[in-house]
User: Fold this.
Amino acid sequence: MNLTMHTTTQVIPAACLALALLAAGCAKSPVQPGARTQILIDPGVYGAFAAPATKAVDLSRTGDPAYTNYYYNGFTGEPAKVSLPVGSTVWLTYRQGTYNGSGSTADPANFSWGPIDLHAYVVQDAAGFHALYPVSSVEVTEDGVTYLDVVQPIVYAEPLYLEDGYYQFRMVSPANRIKKSNLAMQMDNGMYVYANDERYTQTASKVLRIQSHQEPVQNILLNPVIAQMARFKVTIHPGANVSTMEMLPQGIEISGLQNPEMDGEGHLEFKWSSMDIRDTLVMKRGDKYARVSIREFTTDPATGAITGDVGVLPTNAYSTVSYILINMAVNGIPTQYVLSLNGMKFFHGHSYDLDLSVDLDGDIHVMSWSNQGWTGEVSFN
Assistant:
């Protein structure tokens, strides 16, 4: 078997969506009529990996603080707009603050903050656009640790009512299992997760003032969330003398990734609810034993091309090697292909697309890959 390849790969940043939301949250304890305002939340989302609008920065300079795009963490511009899929679940936290009387009310540092409250939501289609509806959650205790899960099947809950004042909001999607004690989420390679991110002005947790003005409902606009994972997308095209292609049960294995964050009890952890940038899901060095597999694929009936994708933790594999192991049957013959990716950094919110072609020349199978490029820059700081 002969395998030819190149080391340049496509990088596509996350995309964004504007959602009109009709309902939100769960009611707290009963209050006097008119004392609180029902809140309708209107956020956006970066991170559905749609068509490219920007590209990654020069990866060889991301460690240089003097570089123009050093603080962009791999982005050079704002992604395009797409929609969060119907059925997506969301955790929302909010906390009420007391303004200290000086400085901008948009800066959380100018407030004294109360405890965090948590509610769950689901995205549904309403009158032709996407909307968040409040849903119920439940406590589950395993091995002495109490977790929170969204009730399945979905059980709808009461709307969110808030007193007049300043509030700070934060979101994560999907609403995977979290620890009740600190709201840390279990997170690993193979998942897609979107959350507010303090590294960017556009995606940081937002401070808003709630004012009733005798109105029963207030619509608020939150900062968007952004993809916390990178994505591997593999497309395999049938080439010369290839009549049939199908993936074997082992699928495609990607190795050399970051190991997931762990807490002191040995559980996976992502502190998505933290307002501290130090709790951001950071890029770490790859480990040859950390791997994930793509097991679900789609086939284009017109071209026969096979496509699959998977989310991976941000990984610095610049001084190590990541391997892609492809298990498939070509003309009914089980075959393995191995590709090595050298000098790579896998940034959150970017998609690393491998466009492959399988040829058959006598008894020799050849897989080659091609690259695509694009341009375009807008402000994303």
User: Anything to note?
Assistant: The longest strand covers residues 315-330. The chain has no helices and 28 strands. Confidence is low (pLDDT under 50) at residues 1-35, 51-55, 369-381. The two ends are 47 Å apart (CA to CA).
